Amino acid sequence: MIKLSLQNIKGIGPKSLSLLNKLGIINVSDLVNYYPYRYNIFKISSLKEASDQNIVAAQIISNPIVNYIKRNFNRLSFNVIMENKSIKVTIFNRAFMKTNLTIDKKVYLQGKYDEKKNTFVASNIFLNIPDNMVQPVYHLTSGLTNQALTKYITSALESYEQKEILPSYLNDRYDFISHNEALKIIHNPSDANLLKKAKLKLIYKEFFDFTFKVNYLKYQNKNISGIKKEYPEDLVNTFISNLPFSLTEDQICTLEDISKDLTSSSKMNRLIIGDVGSGKTILCVIAMYANYLAGYQSAFMAPTEILAQQHYNSINKLLAPFNIVTELLVGSMTKKEKDNIIKRLINNEIDIIVGTHTLIQESVTFSNLGLVITDEQHRFGVMQRKLLSEKGSNPDALYLSATPIPRTYALALYGDLDVSLIKTKPAGRKEIFTKVVDFKNLKIVLQAIYEELKEKHQIFVVSPLIEGSEESDLESVNALKEKFQKAFKNINTEILHGKLSNEEKQNIMNNFKNGVINILISTTVVEVGVDVSNATMMVIFNAERFGLATLHQLRGRVGRNDLECSCYLISDYNTERLKVLEESNDGFYISQKDFELRKEGDLFGTRQSGTMNFKIANLYSDGKILLQAKKDSEEYINSKEYLNSSYYNDIIKEITSLD
Ligand code: ADP
Ligand code: MG
To answer: Which residue has a Cα nearest atom 17 of ligand 1?
Structure first.
């Protein structure tokens, strides 16, 4: 496939090239397939109906004044005539527009009108009526504006024609529009009906490709024989009865599935789906213990170093008393340390290895790998899953997922896997008290934090940084840290952010776990996937930036103890949606609600860290399309039609190149 270079696109130079690369956009095809996650739908309205969506026209009657409130924070104000009234307009962080706003000029404002104060608090100023009243909004990176990205995509679409990939008989069957047309519409929708058609095509195509891979693997893996393991069951049972708790019903069922798989002569390929805190990890520990008793090594792969470290600690604690040797292998270790671990793995001096992607590197070899486990498996691609398995001769494979999806969808997505569901929660788990609070009532949250600190409990704070978003009204995390330290004396607050090295992150996490840090402010969600049993409170700023499923997962970081735990969602927007979390602690229910409550314009949902990496498809709203695409891709494989497509042949080469 010819990949057109981005530098051929008007306006893209070395600097913007590297910014685009940061977003994973490497060639022109990536660029045009980078979809907006939302649209701003503008409407011209009267002052009475002014809002962040609607636009009100005004004429400037005074020179603007800028107040610098603190670093990176300023307020611009000026007077206008709107609907024959003289009104004061204020807007934050637009000092740079000052020279454009001259007396008599016409401007178009979005925002809210406060009648009592006769002030219009603007969220956006336009110097012209936007050409297109539906404006795509893209995920950005610092230094790249939405406007620039829109321009690049528009000019790419002018010179680039997306080849039709989907087999033509399917396009005919469903009367799909062409891929190329769909792209043009998705980036610049002119009418709702066309947009629907474009979405349908792209969603179907995305699911078709995904299920094609999964189905192809299934077809290839049919009846792969595995290792028939023998181990003394009574030892495993003793281990289970010595746990400080008894297993839930669903845990027991899942364990039965696992032991059947382990002792059968075909290869285990099992996915465990269970809400956060439902107790998936302990089942893995039991499985690894059985695997050890049968005489085999286990590998456990986690998506981040922090998670790997955490799993390593808890596995080691449970299994070291049985003389089981567990080690950690992660990227940040020195070459010498890694080499040493790798040598011991080959020599069978290590029984269980826990690690990150590092585990699938070529140099890692096992003596007799019998079981591979992948945590948060949606973060790894089909390929990576396979790579780990290839480290042994058909080792049993177990995958974990905290994304609560119904079984039928799970089967379509993971056609090559068997699925066990854990729906019951461990006994005695209390509901986490959850409250949505707006910024002006922040005091309530501070009071609650104060109470928890008094009890020597710890607190997670998540404050999302959306890089490069101009209209960002986020409090800088540094200011937040200062605020907390001022409000609470003798309190240690630390910030965990994506730019820290793994070692620094690990240090901070250790200090939080050990209680040295009282309040941990995290700017990225990924790093919060850890257990800190003394943490009793989760505070999430600008909670509207996350999907409900993600918020639910974040909330699941607390409540892993028998203390009363709480979660505060701080937001001024979309609070109705957030209130679902006040109502429920059930991940399946929450995910379902999440898509029901989506708003117009909010087409593809919020970026979810908890779900699969689909660019446009949504499991909950598009489940039916998924099931159809799965059926069709099976048919496509069975008919051997794919042999005529270079695109699908390339995909097959990619999946099978490992053999
Ligand atoms: P998950 O991996 O599904 O998010 P974990 O396995 O980490 O959940 O379990 C969360 C916590 O609950 C752990 O501290 C674990 O020891 C504990 N746990 C697991 N199963 C039970 C159970 N049946 N009863 C009580 N506590 C349990
Ligand atoms: Mg887990």
So the answer is: 279
